Structures are given as C-alpha cells and as structure tokens.
Amino acid sequence: MDKMWAGRFEKALDKQADDFNSSIHFDSKMYKQDIRGSLEHALMLTTCGILNQTEYEKINEGLNSILDDLDSGALAFDMDAEDIHMFVEAELTKRIGDYGKKLHTARSRNDQVALDLRLYMRDEANKIINLLCELVCVVKDKAKENQDAIMPGYTHLQRAQPITFAHHLLAYCMMLLRDITRVQDALKRMNYSPLGSCALAGTTYPTNRDMVAKNLGFDGVCMNSIDGVSDRDYCIELEGAFSTIMMHLSRFSEEIILWSSWEFKFVELDDSYTTGSSIMPQKKNPDMAELVRGKTGRVYGDLMATLTMLKGIPLAYNKDMQEDKEAIFDATETVIKCLEVFIPMVKTMTPIKGNMYKAAGKGFINATDLADYLTKKGMPFRSAYKIVGTIVAECIRNDITLDQMSLEAYKKHSDLFENDLYEEISLESCVAKRISKGSTGYDSVKEQIAYVEEQLK
Predict the structure, then answer these.
(1) CA angle (50, 71, 339) in 5-degree steps
(2) Collapsing DSSP states into helix, strand and coil, what is residue 268?
C-alpha cells in the first residue's frame, strides 16, 4: 500500500522499520470511533461549504459501508496499513475514488487520533462505570442478607473488635462508589474535542469545531490547538483511577482468599469460580481472586509506562505518543475482565456465619467493651484499660475467655464489676451498642445500606 505521506520521499520505508512504525494491529479497535469522527467531520466540511453535497453523500455512503463491512466481518483490516486512519481513508478512496481524498481536508492524523482515543475511552470508561455500579449492587445485596452475621473485625490482621459481615462488606461499597466518581471526574475533564487542532497550529479553512464537538457529545473544544494534539492527561487520570479500582479489587481478593481458606473458612466460593490441583484432590483454589490480585500490578505498570513515556516529550505531537494506546487499552481491558469475573464470584459466594461467630468468640475482641463498662461506672478510661489488660493476661494463662471468667475473679480486680458485665460483653451487645454514625451497629448498617442504594440511583 502506498503511504499517504508519499511524495517527499525518494525511497520506500524499510520493511522492518515499517512494521515497527505501524500501529494498525492495536489501534484498529478504534475503527468505530474513527469512522464516527470522520462522518461528523465530513458533515461539518459540507455545512461550512468546503465540500459540496455530492461529495458529502459519497463520503457518507462510503464510510457507512466500511463500518457495516467491518462490523459484519466482510471486510478485514489490512495489516500493511500504517494505522486505522490510513486504512479507513485508503479503503474509502478505493470505494468512492477521488471523493475519498477530500475527507482529510482541515484535519491531521494528530487531531484525528486524539479524537478517536477520547471517543474510545469515553465509551470504555462508561462500561467500567456500569460494571462498578453492578458490583456495588451485588456487594450491597450480600451485606443486606448478612446484617446479623457477627464476625471479628481486624487490625494488623489480629482480631480486634466484633463487627457484622455486612459492615465489613459495606466498606468495599464505599470504596467502589468513590471509584465511580473518580472515573466520572476524569471523563468530565477529557470531554472536549481536539478535532480541528490539525497538526498543531489549526487550519486556514473556515471550519466549525463547535459543531463537530456538539454532534459527538463533547462539552466543548480544546481551546489550544497545541494542547489539543499533545494532551494525554486523560489517559493518566483514567489509568490512575483504574489502578485505584484494581487496588480495591486486590484488597477484596486478598480477604476472599483468606476467608475461603481452612484457617478462616468464613466463606465458600462457588465451584464455578475456583479450580483444583493436578496432584492434590482435596484442593479448591480461589484462582479468580488470585488472578485479580496479580493483574493489579499490570494496571499499575500501564500507568507508569504512560507517565514515563510522556515525561520528556516536547510539544506538540511526537511518535512516542503512539505508545499511549497499548497501555491504556491494556489497563481498560484488564479492569473490565476483572470486574466481569469478580461480580459473579462475589454474588455466588456463600458466607459461613457459624464459623464467623465462632472466630468472633475468641481473641478477646470484647475487651474494649469491658473497659467501657468500667468507664461508664466512673473509672477513668486509662485505669480501666490497664485493669482489663491484666484480666486478659489472666484469662490467657487460664485458657478461658472473658465471658468464662467468674464474677468473683472479676471483683478481685475492681468492685465495680457486677453480674450485668456478662450482658455488656456479649458479642450481640458489643455490636448493638455501636450507635455512632457509620459504625457496625445494626441501625447504622441499615443507614449505610440506604446510603449506597441512594447513590446507585
């Protein structure tokens, strides 16, 4: 295929260099956006009197036929083309003749690729937002079903205080809701059209950039043509948001991996989302959760690759920027694939409430409530803290729990202890007494569920 930029050159591009330079094998995924942008560009050129009606109709018909054939598989991408833009233009010219050569008037591949990438990422980011909403809904529903399931809450991976499984799950809902807003914020800043910036300096033709921007659903145009073709901040912002999403999924995965182990056995994963061992017949491995955890580093790498690629580039467009697409495409596809498997994995996960409750009964996680018991009777908290610490040490020596210690033994430490202490340190009471906003208390958890449901609307 002849290069669209042929004319200045006396020699053909070396084959190895040509392959190295080509991006069609990965930017072909933007064909819908490329054709959509070209259709609106052609309409604008016609409205501004730069193309006549016949030229527009031929171009419009040709582009739509290419789109239909690519969608149906009747047309294959030519891997000898330099990029998706050159492929579409060459195919259009093949179909409608010289009319096709007029389409590129008043634009450059520099602003064309910037447009395509924004359109593509807008579409993909909205897919991710929808998947995040679905995951929040699934986690919220799982929390709603398990408001009475008491489990140990942890700090430093040590049993700390009793909480409900619902409260723990709702923490992930809050993280994921923030993830949604992060992607939405990035979309707001990227939703400006670079088309019409041309190579870097704009055009001498009387174009209407605002018309194209409006028709393509943008909030306006990039106000500086140099910035229009060289800006990839939106890739960095989206990759940053995607990295945070993956970090949250990875933390959740880590807990699911722990919870499904025999050491915890708080949950049972559905067979559909686990694998076995080739040598150990008893194994049920949480491979999907482990893969999500592993793929997190991949998305981090995509962010670092883009940041590093951009850090030393002078204005305006440079070929280095071709490297933006594989990184942002990989990050996007990884997040989508992880969410698509994570949603049903959580949905089909079965909590084992009995094991959670049993674990909550150990580790002296009601010790804070015992100290609060003394404090409510007038003892300074630090004094109560020290007494309870001494009691816990005594229980450990005697291999008993706080509720198994006799009242007589308690009174040796303080006369403030009475029979009502046992009710105060029961797991149910420990949870129910947490009445502060956002706490693990039953009313607070109901309020959190209502908040999540309101946000999802």
Answers:
(1) 110
(2) strand
For residue 267, what are its two tokens? 């949950």
Select which of 25, 261, 272, 277 is catalytic: 277
**Is 277 an active-site residue?**
yes
Q: Are 165 and 353 in contact (CB under 8 A)?
A: yes
SS3 per residue for 399-447: CCCHHHCCHHHHHCCCCCCCCCHHHHCCHHHHHHCCCCCCCCCHHHHHH
- What's the CA gap between 132 and 175, in Å, rounded? 10
How distant, in Å, are the alpha carbons of 88, 98, 105 from that of 101?
Answer: 11, 5, 8
Question: How far is Cα 392 from Cα 272, in angstroms, rounded to an integer?
Answer: 43
What is the Cα–Cα distance from 233 to 457, expressed in whole angstroms?
30
Give the three-class secondary structure for 246. Answer: helix
The per-residue pLDDT for range 176-209, each reduced to its tens digit, is 999 999 999 999 999 999 999 999 999 999 999 9
In degrees to the nearest 10, what's the CA dihedral of 189, 193, 194, 197? Answer: -130
Q: Which of 156, 278, 406, 436 is catalytic?
A: 156
Buried b / exposed e across 193-202, counting CB within 10 Å, b at 16+? bbbbbbbbeb
CA neighbours closer than 13 Å in the CB half-sphere of residue 3: 15
Distance CA 435, CA 8 (A): 76
**What amino acid is encoded at 19 in this protein?**
D
* CA dist., res. 445 & res. 350, Å (int): 20
Query: pLDDT, tens digit, for every residue of 43-84?
Result: 999 999 999 999 999 999 999 999 999 999 999 999 999 999
Count of all residues that appear for the chain in the document: 457
Pairing of strands 158-164, 350-351: unpaired
Q: How many CA atoms lie within 13 A of 88 on its CB side?
A: 32
405: number of Cβ within 10 Å: 21
